[in-house]
Amino acid sequence: MRADVVVVGAGPAGCVLARRLAEAGADVVLLEAGDHVASPRAGLLDVGPGSHVVTRHQARLGGTVLELPRGRTLGGSGAVNGGYCVAARPSDLVSWGPDWPRRHAVGLARAAERLRPTLAPMDPVAARVAAAFPGRVSAVAQARRGARRVTAFDAWDPPGAGVRVRTGARVARLSWADGAAGGRCDGVVLAAARGNAGGGDDDNADGEVVATDLVVLCAGTIGSAALLRNSGLGESTGHPVGERVQEHPEVLLGLPAGVAADVSSDYGVTAHRGTEPREAALVPLLSHVIRFGLDEAPGPTAPEAPEIEVRPYAVPLHHVIPGVDPMPLRLGVALMNPLGYGRIDADGTVFLPDDPRDAAALYAAAAIVADRLGLGEAEPVPSTSQHLSGSARIGEVVDHTGRVMGVDGLYVADASVLPTLPRCGPYYTVLAVAEALAAGLAAERPW
Ligand SMILES: Cc1cc2nc3c(=O)[nH]c(=O)nc-3n(C[C@H](O)[C@H](O)[C@H](O)COP(=O)(O)OP(=O)(O)OC[C@H]3O[C@@H](n4cnc5c(N)ncnc54)[C@H](O)[C@@H]3O)c2cc1C
Known about the structure:
Keywords: FAD, Flavoprotein, Oxidoreductase. This protein has ten helices and 24 strands. The longest helix has 18 residues, at 356-373. The two termini are 16 Å apart. The strands form seven sheets. Strands 6-18-19-20-15-23 form a six-stranded antiparallel beta sheet, covered by helices on one side. Strands 10-2-1-14-24 form a five-stranded parallel beta sheet. The chain has a four-stranded mixed beta sheet with strand order 4-3-22-21, with no helix packed on it. It is of the alpha+beta class. It has helices at 12-23, 90-93, 100-115, 124-132, 152-156, 193-198, 220-230, 257-260, 356-373, 427-444, and strands at residues 5-8, 28-31, 54-61, 64-71, 84-85, 137-139, 141-142, 144-145, 148-149, 164-166, 171-176, 185-191, 206-211, 214-217, 249-254, 269-270, 281-282, 288-293, 307-311, 330-335, 343-344, 350-351, 381-384, 410-412. Mean pLDDT is 91; it is low at 195-202. α1 runs parallel beside α10 (427-444) and α3 (100-115) crosses α10 (427-444). The structure holds flavin-adenine dinucleotide. Flavin-adenine dinucleotide (FAD) is lined by residues 8-14, 31-34, 45, 47, 69-73, 76-78, 80-84, 170-171, 218-220, 223, 227, 386-387, 414-415, 425-427, 430. Residues 8-14, 31-34, 45, 47, 69-73, 76-78, 80-84, 170-171, 218-220, 223, 227, 386-387, 414-415, 425-427, 430 line the site of flavin-adenine dinucleotide (FAD).
């Protein structure tokens, strides 16, 4: 098989790249490892045990072992995520380079046209928490239309632009023109059919080769790092792959019975005419967030002060994640400008950032929240925002066009390339950056 462009991964970034390059005249093949279709039910986070649409990655947070689920389906993690869309602030982008605030703004406008996220009414939990932090609440938009989730695959519709989409096609490694890693990339090697059918991610037996002049990796922060490394790129070739990843650390606080009582077991299911109850939309897990700066709460935030995002989850997580044990209603407290970096090891294990300065800020913030809400001595439960980024950063592994430095025919355009994590969930930023990188490639037409 041959194509002008091979895009690896049909997550948010992959759908953007595939559509835009096809619109620019390229014959594009989009390869997606997953072969199950995600539920279109808005509000559902199908990441629990038994999900057919995620890959689970081992992670360590200090001494704790966690599993990180990542979408493995058309739409990627955007098909299983909370769907909250918040734009990065221009000040988040200044350190990326002088042209990025403009490029991001243009990319975001194009992403907004396609995704058209919508606001939801404030739910009772958010209202309760917002009342304790006057003037600090912000609405967060959701990628949904009525009872349906809108994924990037829905919104960018790669097949509608002529893209050839193949599911159950897991790329095992890149192919090099002269056999040596880091020269010219001339295609990708799919995992043998046995590995695809079993979904076993360490089965890297070679299968079909897809030949091309241009490969764009959009396999996500963990997936793209694995592919670069499995193909021989890393420290030895001067590419610090996976060495400085970022995440928004989060702790969870249990809410008292008074708040939990407002949230009956049926709360959160919005019946839509013409749909079965089991298919009805769920309310967004997060309709609003509360933001404050740690040093000066509740006044204006100093630029370098730790910035906190309080996430009043509308329902207990077992209402929206199938298969998990019943759990209390909790709210999240996250640090949005962490100092710490983590890494992804060569064997794929994710070491989440574990910086004591961040932990101190986070637990101090949790104490403020517990105090304001009268939670008593609530014990924070360590968690993670699922916002991992930066395994192939612009300026370190790829240049400002997304091209892997010193390598011909190979680009990365997903959450891996974010030079720093913005002070919000990364979904919208990933889409905006993908649009910006796609616009550059479409202008250059290197195929
Ligand atoms: C549970 C969860 C909840 C989240 N909630 C939010 C939220 O509410 N708001 C927010 O802003 N962000 C949220 N995020 C983060 C957001 O979803 C991600 O930042 C975003 O999806 C990253 O997009 P991506 O294109 O980089 O990669 P991904 O979404 O990870 O997509 C990568 C795609 O590549 C495919 N792939 C991987 N390896 C291969 C391979 N070797 N061959 C072929 N295909 C491959 C995968 O199957 C997948 O489809 C959440 C993430 C998770 C996991």
